[in-house]
Amino acid sequence: MEPVTTISLHPEQWRAYNFKKQYGVAICGTKGGKTFVGATWANKKIVELPLGSGLIAAPTIKILQQATLDTFFNLFPEYRKFHKKQEGVIELPTGGRIYIRSTDEPLAIEGFNLDWAWLDEIGMMSRLAWVIAKGKVAISHGQIFGTTNAYYMNWLYKEVYLPSKEGHDPEVELFNWSSIDNPYFPKEFADKERDRMSPAEFSRRYEGKFVRMEGLVWNVDDSNILKRGSELDSYLTYPERIIAGIDWGYTNPAAILVINIKDNKYYVTTEWKEVKRTSADIIQKCSELNREALIQTFYPDPAEPDRLDEMRRAGMTVGEVNKDIPMGISKVETLLREHRLFILEDCKELLDEVTQYRYENPKEDHSGKEVPMKVNDHLCDALRYAIVGNEFGQNLTFQEEKGEKMRIEQNRNSRKEYELL
User: How many CB atoms within 10 Å of residue 247?
Assistant: First the structure.
């Protein structure tokens, strides 16, 4: 007979453990007990759904192995013998399966139909991981429990925390507590940390509150973010130019941004970001966007010239890109500061990236060769390529390019007619 495990939860953990809505999100200070309650909740779902499929996920392999799974197996050691580490699955004798995954590649969870999911450190995950996880429990109407420390004002803050806190999202149940709500956390230590840290960092680390990340590359505030509407759509119907930036990728996401230019201002109107897309897939997407928007010039990462030749053969105009990162960052920063660069609010992936696009060791003046951390920056790169390429390139006007596109299409049709003869 297996030994009985006795679990003791403090009041805030108990409330989160018993959430009733489809999605529960627990955000707390350091050592507030979020992984403990997440592991306990996962065990509850295993008991409730012995034939079901579940997911235990964390943002990186290191966190998954050293924190999430370590806590789960220490609390419930009886599951260790069913864990097939190489396959990333716990196969239960009841017939149930628990998949173990890192979400650093969000498509790793794409192939499952799930009855429940526990996403530990959800605040460090990409928005795409959350979107995919929700889709995986859609058929079963299963629950997702996200547990995390508070980090920065990314997608979790904007799309989950704020709507739920303000009562606008009936599907999410939100729980928020501080480190000292855990009775085992020493209050005297928290008092010392309060004196040592900045108020913002203390609030984030120990009070479970979202704060603005330090060392951000760009200051994108509400004045740079626009809502779609008939007036704006009408204004952007006849831009002076339409350009696009491209960051190639496969294992890392590929990214495309479409930007309308009017009255010497830039408007980011469309984004595309996906993983495991071949060159042909990316160029096909460029062709689709080109047909929809009559993009005048594409500014792709020039690292692979063969891809640029493929785009040209597909009838697209490819502009020259300068990859000088500090220069590109400075140019985008200037446009934001001068209120000449705007992002439409439905470009959520880009808005999420800029909340985390930061310097690892920020200097006061961002001088020298300092460059941002290479983490979740693919649309930011595409933005730099497009802005710098357009600002320093020599290009046709929109009307001239529109005429050129018509001539290209007429030539294509003539060739087709000739081939049919």
Answer: 24
The Cα–Cα gap between 281 and 278 comes to: 5
298, pLDDT greater than 70: yes
* Burial of 325: CB neighbours in 10 Å, binned 0-12, 13-18, 19+: middle
Find the farthest-apart pair of alpha carbons in the chain and give their distance in angstroms, rounded.
Answer: 88
CA atoms of 260 and 329, how far apart (whole Å)? 19
Q: Confidence band (pLDDT; 50, 70, 90) for 138?
A: very high
What whole-number distance in Å separates Cα of residue 149 and Cα of residue 146? 10
Task: Out of 33-37, 55-59, 161-165, 174-178, pick the least confident.
Answer: 161-165
Residue 2: Cβ-neighbour burial (10 angstroms; 0-12, 13-18, 19+): exposed
Amino acid making up residue 340? R
Strands 254-262 and 241-247 come out as antiparallel
Characterize the bridge pairing of strands 265-274 and 254-262: antiparallel
Q: 253-276, pLDDT tens digit by residue? A: 899 999 999 999 999 999 999 888
Q: What is the mean pLDDT of residues 314-330?
A: 91
Token couple for 150: 């508070």
Q: Are strands 143-149 and 265-274 parallel, antiparallel or unpaired?
A: unpaired
Q: Are 26 and 37 in contact (CB under 8 A)?
A: yes
Q: What is the DSSP string of 69-92?
A: HHHHHHH-GGGGGGEETTTTEEE-
Contact by Cβ (8 Å): 189, 198: no
Q: With cut-offs at 50, 70 and 90, classify the pLDDT of residue 417.
A: very low
Q: Which residues contact 200 (CB under 8 A, 6 or more apart)?
A: 211, 212, 214
Give the C-alpha separation, 305 to 104, whole Å. Answer: 28
On average, the pLDDT of the chain sits at: 87
